[in-house]
UniProtKB/TrEMBL annotation:
Annotated segments matching region Disordered: 1-30
Organism: Ascodesmis nigricans
Protein name, UniProt field: ARM repeat-containing protein
Ranges of biased composition (kind: Acidic residues): 1-12
The family this protein is said to belong to: Belongs to the TTI2 family.
Short name of any one Pfam family annotated for the protein: Tti2
Any Gene Ontology CC annotation: TTT Hsp90 cochaperone complex
InterPro entries the record matches: Tti2
Superkingdom, natural source: Eukaryota
Signal peptide start-end: none
């Protein structure tokens, strides 16, 4: 339990010389201040910002009282502090405005609540005994700074308070019963498409009941009753649960996670995908085959894969970037958890990320370089995961990478070119036995990029930093060319002299186009 220390009384030597006529102990003063603050926060007649402003004035003396209080536990203080800490629903933007940055409802009370939450969290002391449901639920509400009502400072303090307890000190009756069953489960009674495909026991439903799904859910109970529910779920999954409780918690976790993930609000769906990733990491670390035994691998995969389908102009670029990155990470992990041994079946799952994520994404990404960079990063990771099975995608993927490298304005954003070369190098390393037929496409991309660098270097009085950046890119281009040559020479063993001879012919034809390309093959 957090220890809220009782305040010192009139025995203090510095204050006992002139006691007031009707002496009130410092504990009584603190208690009265908290009671007044609770009365203020419940006064619905006043605007929320006015209430928090008054509360801050009421609590100022507590910062003086509490540090000097004797080390005795006062549970009543903790209960009232936790009540004040709970984020008020008025602090949270409506569901309809979460994705609209231009129209986002920002409560003027947020900055006041940020200050108040930090002050109140600092009054709580690390627990030495088993904490209460109220403590775990309220403090975990403030662990994610992505929530509008949680500041970075408050998040740091809240995590520290929760981590001061060994996870084994959060017993079954707190996390499973108190938080998941009694608090969160009643808030997710609506049946989304994914939620209708599972049984109350958290297993795959035999009968298809998706026709009974609530397709449009605008008034979500948790958004007003417990607006911090996502932060609480994230804490429960990542820290609050022990490995032994994973199976018991499974049917209580999956429905709310899928309901959040099925939201039409992209930012909520992104958080939902993040929760699935956390849960999969726990299963992988514990070597738990719960995903296979419950038959929910396909349901979770489809729920997350939909996150790869958001592109401009219908979706803001930063939202596309966030959900694509999260979805790709989650699907890669899910492929490992679903098929830990069978590499071919795992590669078949990863095929879908390449097709639905990278190839389709490049059609819509256009000149949105931040999104293109995320797509290329994801492709690089997936190729590495697939190994030699990625060879079946080279015909579709390499021309898209060459297009990035050959963009006339590509050198204005060098990080993307570096990431693209890294993806090509990964493809060369993993798919080299079948690379011979793709060498012309590889050289097309790197030579086009090299030509653009040579053109940029003709600019008089080039910035020294820019010159160094271009030199670093040229080094990566040479490295890629050298890797291609090494592969062609290695293939000579199986193809006679044909592969090596073909490489020299290709290299000579490139240099004949422009002598400047000779520098591309230095060391190759």
């Amino acid at each position: 339990m957090p220890i809220i220390e009782e305040l010192s009384d009139s025995n203090d030597d510095n204050s006992s010389s002139q006691p007031p006529p009707h002496h009130v102990t410092s504990e009584q003063q603190a208690s009265a201040a908290l009671d007044k603050a609770l009365h203020i926060v419940r006064d619905e007649a006043k605007p929320i910002e006015a209430r928090y402003h008054e509360i801050l004035l009421q609590l100022t003396p507590l910062e003086i009282y509490f540090p000097s209080a004797p080390p005795r536990t006062v549970p009543a203080f903790e209960e009232r502090i936790l009540t004040l800490l709970r984020p008020h629903p008025a602090l949270v933007p409506s569901i309809a405005s979460i994705d609209d940055d231009d129209a986002k409802e920002t409560s003027p009370a947020l900055s006041l609540y940020h200050t108040l939450s930090v002050k109140l969290l600092r009054l709580l002391k690390p627990h030495t005994l088993t904490p209460t449901v109220d403590f775990a639920l309220t403090v975990s509400s403030l662990t994610n700074p992505d929530d509008a009502f949680t500041s970075t400072e408050a998040s740091t303090i809240a995590i520290s308070l929760l981590n001061s307890n060994n996870p084994s000190r959060y017993p079954h009756d707190i996390v499973i019963t108190g938080i998941l069953k009694d608090t969160i489960k009643p808030l997710f009674t609506h049946r989304t498409v994914s939620a209708t495909r599972i049984t109350p026991a958290g297993r795959l439903a035999i009968r298809d009941t998706t026709a009974n799904a609530d397709l449009i859910v605008d008034n979500l109970p948790w958004s007003t009753t417990l607006p911090s529910v996502m932060a609480v779920l994230e804490w429960v999954i990542s820290t609050g649960l022990t490995d032994a409780d994973l199976e018991t918690a499974w049917p209580l976790l999956i429905p709310p996670i899928l309901s959040i993930n099925d939201s039409h609000v992209i930012k909520l769906r992104t958080r939902g995908i993040g929760m699935i990733t956390m849960l999969l990491k726990r299963l992988e670390m514990a070597k738990n085959d719960l995903l296979r035994r419950t038959g929910l691998g396909g349901v979770l995969w489809e729920a997350v894969e939909r996150g790869l389908g958001y592109f401009p102009p219908l979706t803001a670029v930063k939202d596309c970037v966030a959900i694509n990155r999260k979805a790709t990470e989650c699907l890669r992990l899910m492929a490992r958890v679903r098929e830990p041994e069978e590499t071919e079946r795992r590669a078949a799952l990863l095929d879908r990320i390449v097709r639905e994520g990278f190839v389709k994404g490049m059609v819509y990404a256009g000149e949105k370089l931040e999104l293109v960079e995320v797509l290329v990063n994801g492709l690089n990771s997936v190729i590495e995961d697939m190994g030699v099975w990625a060879v079946r995608h080279l015909q579709a993927v390499l021309p898209l990478l060459s297009e990035i490298l050959g963009n006339p304005f590509g050198t204005t954003y060098l990080p993307l070119l570096h990431k693209t070369l890294q993806a090509e190098q990964t493809a060369i390393c993993t798919c080299w036995p079948r690379l011979s037929e793709h060498v012309p496409e590889l050289l097309h991309g790197i030579s086009a990029c090299w030509a653009q660098i040579l053109e940029d270097e003709q600019v008089p009085r080039m910035n020294q930093t820019k010159k160094q950046d271009l030199d670093a890119l040229k080094t990566e281009l040479r490295k890629t060319a050298a890797m291609v040559e090494a592969v062609m020479i290695a293939l000579e063993k199986s193809e006679g002299n044909e592969a090596s001879a073909r490489w020299h012919e290709i290299k000579r034809s490139v240099i004949e186009v422009d002598p400047g390309f000779e520098g591309l093959f230095e060391g190759a």
